[in-house]
């Protein structure tokens, strides 16, 4: 009997009080507090199409390859970790102008329907909340 692997998708959005190009650049800059790369214990990051990343956080390794980079609109990369059961999943981040702000949408698709896979929703919400905080504190707004 073959076991079919059910997958899920996580979608997280935040409105960031900054122009899309600034938000895009900050998301890929490991020096900027709030993005996931900034919190790495160890990081190898080459944010170009076919560039790889290795990201270690809380003792868990994550790997991926950038498949699309369209500044300032879209970033897409693969994502593998223990929480994806070693399967490749896809993270797509889009940056859409919304007045003077940017609607940032992160969609993580192809995640296994397991506790580890579902846990990505909490993780991405954590990072996007912290990333938003970086911009709201800089502009004096409250998140």
Label this structure with key terms:
about 45% strand, alpha+beta
Protein model, in words:
The protein is 23% helix and 43% strand. The chain has 143 residues and is α+β, with helices and mostly antiparallel strands. The protein has one domain (7-138): Alpha-D-Glucose-1,6-Bisphosphate, Chain A, domain 4 (2-Layer Sandwich), CATH 3.30.530. A hairpin with a 2-residue loop joins strand 3 and strand 4. The longest helix has 25 residues, at 115-139.
Which secondary structure elements does this structure contain, and how are they paired or packed?
Layout: E1 7-16, H1 20-27, E2 42-45, E3 52-57, E4 60-70, E5 74-81, E6 89-98, E7 101-112, H2 115-139
Antiparallel strand pairs: 1-7, 2-3, 3-4, 4-5, 5-6, 6-7
Q: What structural class do the secondary elements suggest?
A: alpha+beta
- State the major sheet: 7 strands, antiparallel
H/I helix tally: 2
Q: In sequence order, what are the helices and strands, one letter per element?
A: EHEEEEEEH
**Beta-strand percent range:** 35-45%
What would CATH call the architecture?
2-Layer Sandwich
Short structural summary:
The protein is 23% helix and 43% strand. It has 143 residues and is an alpha+beta fold.
């Amino acid at each position: 009997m073959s076991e079919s692997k059910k997958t899920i998708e996580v979608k997280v959005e935040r409105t960031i009080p900054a122009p899309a190009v600034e938000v895009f650049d900050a998301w890929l800059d490991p020096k900027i507090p709030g993005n996931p790369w900034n919190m790495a214990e160890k990081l190898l990051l080459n944010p170009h199409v076919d560039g790889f990343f290795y990201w270690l956080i809380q003792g868990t390794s994550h790997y991926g390859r950038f498949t699309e980079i369209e500044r300032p609109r879209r970033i897409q990369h693969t994502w593998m970790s223990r929480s994806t059961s070693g399967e490749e999943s896809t993270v797509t981040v889009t940056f859409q102008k919304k007045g003077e702000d940017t609607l940032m949408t992160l969609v993580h698709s192809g995640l296994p329907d397991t506790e580890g896979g579902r846990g990505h929703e909490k993780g991405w919400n954590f990072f996007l909340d912290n990333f938003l905080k970086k911009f709201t504190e800089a502009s004096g707004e409250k998140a």
